[in-house]
Description:
The structure holds two protein chains of two kinds.
Chain A (H helix, E strand, L loop, with lengths): L18 H30 L4 H9 L1 H33 L6 H13 L2 H12 L4 H8 L8 H27 L2 H8 L4 H30 L2 H7 L9 H10 L3 H28 L1 H7 L3
Helix pairs in contact in A: 1-12, 2-12, 3-7, 3-9, 4-7, 5-7, 5-10, 7-9, 7-10, 8-9, 9-12, 11-12
Chain B lengths: L2 E10 L2 E11 L4 E5 L6 H9 L6 E6 L2 E2 L5 H4 L1 E4 L11 H10 L9 H14 L15 H14 L4 E5 L7 H18 L2 E6 L2 H7 L2 E6 L2 E6 L1 H6 L4 H8 L1
Parallel strand pairs in B: 3-8, 3-9, 6-7, 7-8
Antiparallel strand pairs in B: 1-2, 1-4, 4-5, 9-10
Helix pairs in contact in B: 3-4, 3-5, 4-5
Amino acid sequence: MAVVLARPARAVAPTQEAPWVRRLLIGVVLLLLAVLVGAPLVVVFAEALREGWLVAVASLGDEDARSAILLTLAVAGVAVPLNAVFGIAAAWALTKFHWRGKALLLTLIDLPFSVSPVVAGLCIVLLFGANSLVGGWLVASGYPIVFAVPGIVLATMFITFPFVARELVPLMTEQGKSEEEAALTLGASGWRTFRTVTLPNIRWALLYGVLLCNARAMGEFGAVAVVSGKIRGQTATMPIMIEMLYNEYQGIAAFSMAALLTLLALLTLALKSFLEWRHADQLRATGRH
Amino acid sequence: MHIEIDEIAKEFGATAALHPVSLRIPSGALVAFLGPSGSGKTTLLRILGGLEEPSQGRVLFDGVDATGLRVQERRAGFVFQSYALFRHMTVFENIAYGLRARPRATRPARVEIARRVNKLLELIQLPDIAGRYPNQLSGGQRQRVALARALAIEPRMLLLDEPFGALDARVRKELRQGLRDIHDTTGLTTLFVTHDQEEAMEIADLVVVMSMGRIEQVGVPAEIRARPATDFVRDFVGA
Lengths: 289, 239
């Protein structure tokens, strides 16, 4: 008995695009990625290593270069944790209860995204510079903010403020507050509820926000350029040092530092992927991110 | 524990969710708050649990004023509408949460906590799911775990907000009897909110019909069916 199998009219499921459409889309994306992301990465490392490892590494060992690296790490080390705390506080205030002025806070959080970093830097100079009331007093007391490290931290914090809050607000809105309420009815204190219920529920979004915040904090140029004064060995961060070296035609040194900054960013991404892989089971249990 | 609600009202901004209502609930009763959405029944339940503050009026537990009592001190076992299980904790950790949250002086030892959790898992007839996460459970299982978690703190009363709302019809019938059984075993004063008159009539000792922030009628199911006090009750229950 011969069984005749009906041939499907189409080779693909009805909900799928035709193969050529799929290939075209994937091709376009890959091409864009290669041109916009891949090529610059390759060029940066190629330029840095043009005269070999030793020259590149030696240029990073220069005293001013080392100072710039340390400064960038220190600024990120201060700005990122503070912004993580502020971000959690802001997201909490925005999502867990009702109060007047919520909409205003939401707008203010987005402000750093829409204001040009240069303008932000100028505002800090105007507020805390030697010619302002506060700044004059601070300079006289020996704690200058502008053209010093505190100004750089302030500028970096301003620019990177939205990252953590922006990650947390949609997630916490979606999760609602009933799990927190449940913890309270079970006798947990507010702090315990935050520590054992809220924080575990947002930890992946928080981590993601912190990593984005960190990448941006290390790379920020515009606002920092205005407030730092670009004093070599004192207030020059890595991005500023890169610009100065490049303008002085020190190609190898500029690209070596650029490569290092890129490596730090890649390290950040690798860390995120590693943590996601390590905690895949909990990730599935808590849903997002 | 008997509960007395004395002229409790609640306003959210300009809108009144609850007009002054008064009610006495005898100790050990299984009470249904029945009404359409917006009738104020959930608000009343949340006020009893300490999750909402009344705009006026008093709540008395066993004759003692509990109006200002903080939510943590009420010892009200609360089951939320969507159960609000802690999604990053296993079933065991969920049920143990309230015991572990106790101050050191009154916190049971680790072995004792495990014993109590296992006993509760047997009570809800799910002895083998201690290691699972909430997203690995069915709706009915989640509801029963939420019930066990609320019972773990040795509550003085049990408050359930639409405990069957998120379940399909077959499971709903099954768990209705489950709630009745658990109430009869524990003897706890149990209050649940529902918009389903069949549910209320079938298992409750006492039904409180609510509409627009007011109590329309209080009575045993047979009485409410036989002698509805208002047109609203007749329409709502007769449906």
